[in-house]
Structure formats: C-alpha cells, structure tokens
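If you are new to this repository, start here. Below is one unmodified record pulled from the training split, so you can see the exact layout before writing a loader.
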Amino acid sequence: MTQQLSFDWPRRVALEPDDFFVSDANAAAYAMVSDWENWPDGKLALIGPQGSGKSHLARVFQHISGAQIIAARDLGGLALAPPDAQSLVVEDMETLPQSGEEWLFHAHNHLRATGGRLLLTGANAPTRWDIALPDLASRMQGASVIRIDDPDDRLLGAVLMKLFQDRQLSPDPRAFDYLLRNMARSFAMAGRVVEELDRMALAQQRAIKVPLAKAVLDKLDQDSR
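And here is the target side for that same chain:
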C-alpha cells in the first residue's frame, strides 16, 4: 500500500472550563482549585504527570479568579516588577531557570502582601524542584500540595475523547472501547496512543477501527521494550 506523508499540523486544544471532566482521579484537585479563596497562605501546588490536565485546571482557575498565567521557563526574561493580576499561575515549575527565581520570589511576596493567590504546577512536589535561591525554595515548599492521580476508567475515556477531538479524529466506537480495555492506564500513554493513531491513519489512509487500534498498541508495546 502506498503511504501518504504525514505532518504534525497545528491542532486546537480545548481548554475551556466546560471541557474539564471531573472523576474520582481529579475530583480533589478540582475541588481545591475551585476553593481558591480559602487556600492556606494563599498558594497551592498542583502536581500530576504530563497530560493529567494541570494546564486545563489552571485555565479553570484563570476563568474563576482572573489569574495571569506564565510558563516557568519564561520567567528568566522578565523585569523585576510584580505580576499584572491579583492571582498568578506559574506552570511547569521544573523548567524554572535560575535567572527567574528572584522574580518569582518577589512575585510571591507581592501576592502574599496584597492577599493574592499563587497556583504552581509541576510533575513533582515542591520539595523536588531544583531551586537555588533558599528563600524561594522555602516559600515554595510551604505551599499546600494537591495531586492528580493516575486516571480511572472514566477519566481515561474522557481524556482519550478530548485528545481525539483536539485532532478532529472520529474513532470507531469499537476501536475506542478496545483502547480503553487494552492500553496502559496513564495520561502519557493516552497522548502517545492518539498521536500514533493520527499518524498511522493518515500515512496509511485507514479509518480508526479495531485493527488499526490493535496495531498501534502492538507498536507502542514493542517500542517500549
């Protein structure tokens, strides 16, 4: 069969509050973020693996609080001025450059003094963030921590469906059920499965049905060995 070249086209990622799916795996995190006015010391660390919905939940927080969202990796280029909003989200704290630590330290103190809120996201707890500035490290470690657990079946199904919709893909319902029954239960695997299905479906000009779903899971299993 002649294969068609496939390209990584830009895709729309749905991050509206109404798109967020709550299940047992993320209900505690959703409730804590929603109760933002009552965070102890005005700050919260939202922890979870890649693809678990941290960015989506950060945008839920932005919607209800008017928060400003900044990627930690971008903080190194900012002048030492306080954040523009009364609430701030700093995403992916593991990517914080040392040159951005002083800005975040001052932003933290500014928000605390003005009664603002600070939401920090990362894959690991604050005690594992590589922060050189001792005063900032101690303040980050003082944040309350809420974790998004590995997905249960309901959440995994919702994540898969969202990933398909983001890529404008329509899998056969039987293929969808096959994936839910047979794939590894992780957010990262859900992302890899949908990405590989998209690539193979386009390259081979095949519909996303059970045979293709099985081929993708077999390929990913082989690749992991």
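Two things worth knowing about this chain: The longest helix spans residues 187-204. Confidence is low (pLDDT under 50) at residues 1-15.
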